[in-house]
Amino acid sequence: MEEDQILRLIPWFCTGIGLLFAGIGLAMARKEMRGRRWREVEGRIVDHDSHWSRDSDGDRTLMHTAMIEYRFAGVTKQIRDSLSTNRPKPAGSVVRVRYNPDNPDDVMVWEPLRNGCFIGIFVGLGSLFAIVGGIWIVIAEF
Predict the structure, then answer these.
(1) Which of 19, 66, 82, 104 is the most exposed place for a label (fewest CB within 10 A)?
(2) How far does Cα 134 stand from its chain's mean position?
Protein backbone atom coordinates (compact mmCIF):
# COMPACT_ATOMS: atom_id res chain seq x y z
CA MET A 1 0.00 0.00 0.00
CA GLU A 2 1.16 3.48 -0.72
CA GLU A 3 1.71 5.99 2.04
CA ASP A 4 -1.16 8.29 1.02
CA GLN A 5 -3.61 5.35 1.02
CA ILE A 6 -2.53 4.41 4.52
CA LEU A 7 -2.95 8.00 5.68
CA ARG A 8 -6.50 8.03 4.28
CA LEU A 9 -7.38 4.83 6.17
CA ILE A 10 -6.13 6.00 9.57
CA PRO A 11 -9.16 8.23 10.39
CA TRP A 12 -11.55 5.44 9.36
CA PHE A 13 -9.64 2.98 11.54
CA CYS A 14 -9.69 5.45 14.44
CA THR A 15 -13.45 5.95 14.06
CA GLY A 16 -14.11 2.22 13.77
CA ILE A 17 -12.07 1.34 16.84
CA GLY A 18 -13.73 4.17 18.77
CA LEU A 19 -17.22 2.98 17.86
CA LEU A 20 -16.27 -0.59 18.79
CA PHE A 21 -14.98 0.43 22.23
CA ALA A 22 -17.97 2.70 22.89
CA GLY A 23 -20.30 -0.13 21.86
CA ILE A 24 -18.55 -2.58 24.20
CA GLY A 25 -18.84 -0.06 27.05
CA LEU A 26 -22.54 0.49 26.42
CA ALA A 27 -23.14 -3.28 26.28
CA MET A 28 -21.31 -3.65 29.61
CA ALA A 29 -23.49 -0.89 31.13
CA ARG A 30 -26.65 -2.50 29.81
CA LYS A 31 -25.70 -5.89 31.25
CA GLU A 32 -24.83 -4.33 34.58
CA MET A 33 -28.08 -2.40 34.79
CA ARG A 34 -30.32 -5.36 33.87
CA GLY A 35 -31.11 -5.93 37.55
CA ARG A 36 -32.36 -2.39 38.03
CA ARG A 37 -36.03 -3.44 38.24
CA TRP A 38 -35.57 -6.88 39.77
CA ARG A 39 -36.64 -7.80 43.29
CA GLU A 40 -34.11 -7.56 46.08
CA VAL A 41 -33.25 -9.75 49.05
CA GLU A 42 -30.53 -9.42 51.65
CA GLY A 43 -27.48 -11.61 51.32
CA ARG A 44 -24.50 -12.21 53.57
CA ILE A 45 -20.95 -13.13 52.73
CA VAL A 46 -20.35 -16.53 54.31
CA ASP A 47 -16.98 -17.47 52.84
CA HIS A 48 -14.39 -16.64 50.20
CA ASP A 49 -12.92 -18.76 47.47
CA SER A 50 -9.27 -17.64 47.44
CA HIS A 51 -6.94 -18.31 44.56
CA TRP A 52 -3.64 -17.01 43.22
CA SER A 53 -3.75 -14.93 40.06
CA ARG A 54 -0.82 -13.99 37.87
CA ASP A 55 -0.67 -10.68 35.97
CA SER A 56 1.08 -9.99 32.67
CA ASP A 57 4.35 -9.18 34.49
CA GLY A 58 4.29 -12.55 36.21
CA ASP A 59 3.49 -11.12 39.65
CA ARG A 60 1.14 -13.21 41.76
CA THR A 61 -1.77 -11.78 43.77
CA LEU A 62 -4.13 -13.59 46.11
CA MET A 63 -7.66 -12.94 44.85
CA HIS A 64 -10.87 -13.59 46.78
CA THR A 65 -14.31 -14.37 45.40
CA ALA A 66 -17.15 -14.02 47.89
CA MET A 67 -19.60 -16.83 48.52
CA ILE A 68 -22.96 -15.23 49.31
CA GLU A 69 -25.90 -16.81 51.07
CA TYR A 70 -29.44 -15.48 50.74
CA ARG A 71 -33.01 -16.67 51.41
CA PHE A 72 -35.61 -16.80 48.69
CA ALA A 73 -39.11 -18.25 49.16
CA GLY A 74 -38.07 -19.83 52.45
CA VAL A 75 -35.10 -21.63 50.92
CA THR A 76 -31.47 -20.73 51.68
CA LYS A 77 -29.38 -20.48 48.52
CA GLN A 78 -25.78 -19.65 47.78
CA ILE A 79 -24.17 -17.84 44.87
CA ARG A 80 -20.62 -17.03 43.95
CA ASP A 81 -19.91 -13.34 43.34
CA SER A 82 -19.01 -12.48 39.76
CA LEU A 83 -16.22 -10.14 40.89
CA SER A 84 -12.95 -11.18 42.54
CA THR A 85 -10.94 -8.68 44.59
CA ASN A 86 -7.63 -8.61 46.39
CA ARG A 87 -9.29 -7.04 49.47
CA PRO A 88 -12.23 -9.18 50.51
CA LYS A 89 -15.20 -7.88 52.45
CA PRO A 90 -15.36 -9.61 55.84
CA ALA A 91 -17.53 -12.66 56.34
CA GLY A 92 -20.92 -11.60 57.67
CA SER A 93 -21.02 -8.43 55.55
CA VAL A 94 -24.43 -7.66 54.11
CA VAL A 95 -24.76 -7.44 50.33
CA ARG A 96 -27.73 -6.73 48.11
CA VAL A 97 -28.84 -9.66 45.96
CA ARG A 98 -31.35 -9.17 43.17
CA TYR A 99 -33.25 -11.84 41.27
CA ASN A 100 -35.26 -11.85 38.08
CA PRO A 101 -38.94 -12.36 39.02
CA ASP A 102 -39.50 -14.19 35.72
CA ASN A 103 -36.59 -16.55 36.42
CA PRO A 104 -35.61 -16.67 40.11
CA ASP A 105 -32.46 -18.64 39.24
CA ASP A 106 -31.14 -15.53 37.43
CA VAL A 107 -29.45 -13.79 40.39
CA MET A 108 -26.83 -11.08 40.75
CA VAL A 109 -25.05 -9.12 43.45
CA TRP A 110 -26.45 -5.62 43.13
CA GLU A 111 -24.07 -2.70 43.29
CA PRO A 112 -25.07 -0.12 40.68
CA LEU A 113 -22.20 0.73 38.36
CA ARG A 114 -19.91 -1.68 40.14
CA ASN A 115 -17.68 -1.65 37.08
CA GLY A 116 -18.31 2.04 36.42
CA CYS A 117 -14.64 2.90 35.92
CA PHE A 118 -14.19 0.31 33.16
CA ILE A 119 -17.46 1.28 31.54
CA GLY A 120 -16.52 4.97 31.67
CA ILE A 121 -13.12 4.29 30.13
CA PHE A 122 -14.59 2.19 27.31
CA VAL A 123 -17.40 4.62 26.49
CA GLY A 124 -15.33 7.77 27.06
CA LEU A 125 -12.21 6.81 25.13
CA GLY A 126 -14.26 5.05 22.46
CA SER A 127 -16.37 8.14 21.93
CA LEU A 128 -13.29 10.36 21.89
CA PHE A 129 -11.62 8.20 19.21
CA ALA A 130 -14.83 8.10 17.16
CA ILE A 131 -15.26 11.89 17.32
CA VAL A 132 -11.62 12.60 16.48
CA GLY A 133 -11.76 10.10 13.61
CA GLY A 134 -15.05 11.57 12.34
CA ILE A 135 -13.69 15.12 12.43
CA TRP A 136 -10.51 13.95 10.71
CA ILE A 137 -12.59 12.31 7.94
CA VAL A 138 -14.65 15.49 7.43
CA ILE A 139 -11.55 17.72 7.37
CA ALA A 140 -9.73 15.37 4.99
CA GLU A 141 -12.62 15.62 2.48
CA PHE A 142 -12.17 19.39 2.14
Answers:
(1) 82
(2) 27
